[in-house]
Amino acid sequence: MIIEALIAVTFLAALVTFVLPDRIAGKAAFALSLVPVLGSLVMWQQYDASGNALLGGNIAFETDVVWLQLGQYDLHWMVGVDGISLPLVVLTTILTTLAILSSWTPISERESQFYGLMLLMEANLLGVFTALDFFVWFVFWEAVLVPMYFLIGVWGGPRRKYAAIKFFVYTNIASLVMFIGFISLVFGLGDSISSLRLPEIAQALQAGQLSGFAGLSASALASVAFIAMFLGFAVKVPVVPFHTWLPDAHVEAPTPASVMLAGVLLKMGTYALLRFNFTMLPETARSFALPIALIAVASVIYGALLALAQQDLKRIVAYSSVSSMGYVILGLIAYTTYGVGGATFQMVAHGLISGLMFMAVGVIYNTTHTRMVTDMSGMADKMPVTAGIFVAGAFGYMGLPLMAGFAAEFFIFKGSFESTVMAAMPLFTGAAMFGIVIVAGYLLFAMQRTLFGPFEFDGDYEITEAPFHDVAPLAVLLLLTIVLGVQPDIFFTMIQEAVNPILELGGAF
Amino acid sequence: MAGILEFAPAIVLLPFLSFLIALGAGRYMPKGGALAGIGATAGSFLLAVATFVAVSGGQTYNQTIYTWAEGLDAVDLTFGLLIDPLSAMMLVIVTLIAFLVHVFSLGYMNDDGQTGLPRYYAGLGLFTASMLGFVVADNLLMAFMFFELVGLCSYLLIGFWFRQDGPPSAAKKAFLVTRFGDYFFLIGVVAVFATFGSAAFAGPDAFPVLAEEALAGEHSVNTFLGMGEQAWFTVVGLLVLGGVVGKSAQFPLHTWLPDAMEGPTPVSALIHAATMVAAGVYLVARMYGFYALTPTTLAIIALIGGFTALFAATMGVVKKEIKQVLAYSTISQYGYMMLGLGAGGYVAATFHLMTHAFFKALLFLGAGSVIIAMHHNENMWDMGGLKEKMPVTYYAFLSGSLALAGIVPFAGFWSKDEVLYETLIHGLGGSPILLAAYAMGLLAVFFTGFYTFRMVFLTFHGEPRSETARNPHGVRWNVKAPLAVLGVLAATAGLVNMVPVEKLFGIKGIDFLHQFLDGSFDSLNAHHYAELIPYSSGYIGGEAGTVAIGAAVSLGLALAGAGLAYVLYNVPEPVEHTEKLGSIKTVLYNNYYQDEYQVWIATGVVQPISRVLDKFDQGVVDGVVNGVSSVSLFLGSRMRRIQSGVVSNYAALLTLGLTALLLGLGLIGGWFA
């Protein structure tokens, strides 16, 4: 019941925050958001699952009750976590709390609504990562979009409406494509399933229950469904060439929304790819290894090169997220312990580090009211603590050893180099790894221009060190990044337990 | 002494502790945290010496101490300590130099009233700890991780004076250029794991041993991309070498090093003598058992080394700043070490690594002393006549210079001579590539002698050429003491391995370093490496004759170079002679335009490409997205006509739609069949 409690408490917290006066909304939301943090930590501490939730593994905190009936299918309220979802649950609660804390300075309008939406989004995200029934999952999946739409559209920058609508429509259309793909699988499974529970579907697919549908053979149907779902999730991740909504959304979004977008929302896409495409249709995935690896490498290199061309600090971090997500795709297609495990680890690691970077950019923006690299230099002179954490975070992003990003990237590289899905995987790995050089290029350039050199700033604002409540979340994220980098097994062991059954899957057709 | 090796982790942890103390509490402490660093490095040094003694007595240590990532049905990624003669020797060198640099910093930074001292000492502490972690690493992954941390620390320290324009730029360049090398290194690490399933340097799973056995056909390992084992090992070796070339500033990735002179001078001493730059060469020595298996890699290492030794030495002859001369000499000297390794002279290269650490640290600290005296003016043409004003610095610097130039009996002579000797005999044994590399190395000796003594004469001899040189700032014990210690070492460290004396006069048993390095694990000792290397030896007139000829030629060239410098620059009023070089001078001043083309690659190629891609992305990729949306907006505006607002219309549409949907589903689902 702890998952239900977690989601319900977060919903309640959102509702309470909505009706609170603006004056105390921020502090109240922060205090309330500590409850889910605590809850997720209790889950982590009492976690006793093993195996993959979809493949007959032991599911932690599982609830499975029939909710309502729809034709031949029972809709279940089924939730639970395994080693893939629990780290993301913990990431969500912690990052939301820190994002709320980082909102105190920049958000000064309609505060109760802002914080209410943040908590509402958290509740839905928790639903996405814990739901194990397709219907429940899809409701949460779609419901995440709504708060984010308003967060960008109301509290965003000058072009917020364009960015919000683009984000909403693009990802929504993608969801539709994904939905069609998934439902065609359901039809293809016919009578062999009696519910839309994801474990049931995954296991039916494994048992070879997929038959042809709508004139397609079983394997053709699997391919079509795979492509449709892949496209749908690819927009969410996003991978090249479906990434263009991301920089717009980031640039317009207020800092806390960016933190959540990069830190957690992007992981919905990779999480779903792993749960649906790579777990349910492993054989199809392997047959598409070449195009998927190409997409991964393209995302890494193209995203990084685009980041190199940007002058806006937020756009730099936004494009670099595309690059980092490319690594996740590379790890997933590798189908090795370190590859898929590393990809899952990267979801958490990138969540922390990109959150850190967006917050750090936000803290600088709070003081300077500009994010353009060309507008400032020598900020380290006036904001030494912020600059210090910025530098540390940037090196984390560059994959400095003993920080979480290195662990994730090394796992992925190792896993994909020794992958057997294609003979050319070492070449793809080597190509994607060049991202670690480009990322160093653009982050070092950005730091040199903005943080170092003689202090220069053209604006009218007085530049001083940020207040404690702005710096504290940065420090917490930095600490978490280092802890996970020094001891990745905190999550990596459970991740591997959940990932390894996927690797053992053979052909189903 | 039993069990002293159990304390080896403390050697690494003490400086790390000083990092934490300086970072957290440095601002509240006297001297900005310097004392914590001095205490920690002194403690590390004592422990390192104890370790060294224990290792001399035949003890070794190879233990996994931390599981970083535990693989389920996959390999574990671990940290461990490998203490053998090579790492024990390096531990002593690193801790000693780190200690002396900390002490010297009291004079260079504290006495000069610098700000940001806690940051400085935190950086030094982390730098030392990272390097020590790298030195004791028992596997390639751990080595890589600390290798990268060393890179981070050099970034932080080179860019220490971040309020100016130069240092941050130099720091960026240092990290970026070495990152480029590390990219290959990281692929190499991954490839080693994929090939051998282990990246250990020693023990039953040692990958050099596995490689050796695989080549002997005893078992098979994974190779990739359709290559045979020999070819694949060559590829892997070259990949790892990328990191070495970057960190050890070998051609063509040497360009970051002269710029790195923007950092505080004690940091330069640490980077050049004992940490960052040494890391590359040390790595090759650490996994020498692997490199020795692939002749192609060895030949490439030797060629890179020989070429870099000569190439950098020629650039050193025209520099005006004292630290620039030293920077190019560092590149050149590491070239010798690479030459030695590539030529099969494992002991010789390790020997040179040791002697160079002492005399280069000495020269940098000596230069630092001069720079204090000159109120941070580094231009040698403003100096002159400092000999009388600062005798301790002068004599120490002279000792280091004699060692650098390779004048008998100073340390550099013995080690450089052995490197060249090994190259010569293995070249004569039938390897023309080594002979070519030898020729370059030999020629570089002349230039080394010349630029070294040009530097000495311009700085210390003649008449003072500026007001500050006439009234230099005094230096205190904290500067003089480290110079004195290193001055003695630079003069005497070579005596531990007097191979020419042994061979010429038949005195057995004075090649202590050879014996010491033979005391390692079976797969890691010098004797084993000597069996592995693919070279045979050839001599001119017997072994003793070759030794004599080799030593005489290199000493003669060094003296010739020094003599030329004496003639040209040891005069009361020296003048620039570079004009005589004509257009060569311009090329040398511009460092063969190496920086230009690398900057051009970054700003002339990569940046324009990224800008074009950015336009493409916003115009085409996003254009398609926006195009699709405007088409649908247009269609939507047409469709809007259906939305008449009349409820019965909606009901009709709804019914129609539902019917169509049911019909469609029925047809596909075969309900009517």
Structure description:
The complex is a heterodimer of chains A (509) and B (673). Chain A is mainly alpha-helical and 509 residues long. Chain A has helices at residues 2-19, 22-46, 85-103, 111-130, 134-155, 160-189, 198-206, 218-236, 245-252, 255-280, 282-287, 289-308, 313-334, 337-368, 379-382, 384-397, 404-417, 425-433, 435-450, 468-486, 489-503; strands at 60-70, 73-81, 376-377, 456-457. Chain A has 21 helices and 4 strands. Chain A is globular and about 70 Å long. Chain B folds into 4 domains: 1-137; 140-158 and 165-292, no CATH class; 344-576, no CATH class; 593-635. Chain B has 28 helices and 2 strands. In chain B, a hairpin with a 7-residue loop joins strand 1 (61-69) and strand 2. In chain B, helix 3 (85-110) packs parallel to helix 15 and helix 13 (295-316) packs antiparallel against helix 14. The radius of gyration of chain B is 30 Å and the shape is globular. Chain B starts with 7 loop residues before the first helix and ends with a helix. The model of chain B has no long low-confidence stretch (mean pLDDT 88).
Number of strands of chain B: 2
- Greatest contact between two chains: A-B, 67 and 57 residues
Give the overall average pLDDT of chain B: 88
Number-wise, the strands of chain A total: 4
- Going across the major beta sheet of chain B, what is the strand order? 1-2
Order of strands side by side in the largest beta sheet of chain A?
1-2
Structural class of chain A: mainly alpha
One letter per element, helices H and strands E, the order of chain A comes to HHEEHHHHHHHHHHHHEHHHHHEHH
Structural class of chain B: mainly alpha
Shape of chain A: globular
Oligomer: heterodimer
